[in-house]
Amino acid sequence: MQQEITRADHPLIKQTASLKEKKYRERFGEFLVEGELSVLWALQSSYVINTVFYADDYTLPQQISENLVDIPTYRVPTHLLAKMADTKTPQGIVCTCAFRETPPLPQKGRFIYCDQVRDPGNLGSILRSADALGYDGVMLSPLCVDPFNPKLVRSTMGSLFHISLYTDIDLESLKTMQKGGFQLAVSSLTETSISLGDFAPEENLIIVVGNESKGVSKPVTEAADVVVKIPMAGSAESLNVAAAAAILMYEANAGRLS
User: What are 204-229's pLDDT values in tens digits?
Assistant: First the structure.
């Protein structure tokens, strides 16, 4: 199904280029993926791929071409590929993926919950860590950064396509999961915080990390079953949220890793 597009005003070129902005991702119900490895991971995932574009000076690797059956694929001039891509030096291939519906609230498992995390790089790192450490999914509060921001998609290094993502999970949803048997463990420095070394994670667990400057919101902290702090020997006041999340997830899952 490979075709050629040469016009900058072609509707598909214009639509794909617009996906760098959230309002157009929401309008068209799809997001942009760029780069050879990221496109391959997308093609091999359960996401529906709407379109693939590659530059006329780019050679499709066999691993990608064999996954393009029944997917509309377009060869375009290099300058049009650059128009669609988000990076200054694109790798020659991009694709668009349809959004998936947020899955229903889980009944069991281990998850990381991001409460108003705003930086794409931080959220991308958290997704990668959750994937690497065997977590069942990443949950995002309503005010988190858009997980389909092109920078974030790139920063996950494919983990976006490997792990369950739950968006717009509010406090009431967390409380519903608590009632269903989940332990809610908030990372925060309060008078009641216990050291990470004293934390006893339960089988069904939600670890909560917060906003880069404000931390976990007060209502979520007040709902916690346990508030945990990471002991620090140096002079730093706090850890980057992505680093803190990785430490918390690793320690909670240490007995499960081999």
Answer: 999 999 999 899 999 999 999 999 98
Please tell me whether residue 31 adopts helix, strand or coil conformation.
Answer: strand
8 A C-beta contact, residue 211 and residue 116 = yes
- 49-55 sheet: strands from edge to edge: 2-4, 73-76, 49-55, 93-98, 30-34
C-alpha span between 95 and 97 (Å, rounded):
7
Where helices occur in the chain by DSSP H, the ranges are: 11-18, 22-28, 36-43, 62-65, 78-84, 120-132, 150-155, 171-179, 218-222, 241-253
Q: Which residues are bridge partners to 226 per DSSP?
A: 185
Which residues sit opposite 183 in a β-bridge?
205
Provide the whole-model pTM.
0.91
User: Which one-letter amino acid corresponds to residue 174?
Assistant: L
Q: What are phi and psi of 173, to 5 degrees?
A: -65, -40
Residue 207: which residues within 8 A CB-CB, separation 6 or more? 110, 111, 112, 113, 185, 187, 245, 248, 249, 252
pLDDT in tens, 232-245: 776 566 789 999 99
CA-angle at 43, arms to 69 and 73, nearest 5°: 45
